[in-house]
Amino acid sequence: MLKKKKTEVYALGQHISMSADKARRVIDQIRGRSYEETLMILELMPYRACYPIFKLVYSAAANASYNMGSNEANLVISQAEVNKGSTVKKLKPRLY
What we know:
The chain is mostly helical.
């Protein structure tokens, strides 16, 4: 029986305190683009969400080169998604 070679790698970012809508605005710009083009876009965009996404894309590329031995120039962002996380309960200061 022939085994099918796995050709996808992923990186998962959790516990990033940021609005899902603001992160989704950046993710929509990089979906379907090449790795090098994605890094250029993320460096030039003026949003705060770009840095954690940049680190995730860089981590996924490192996973691909280490685990599969693939060249970073051939990588494509095929799927990227942002989901809503947990909310932080705000403190209401009171006297007693």
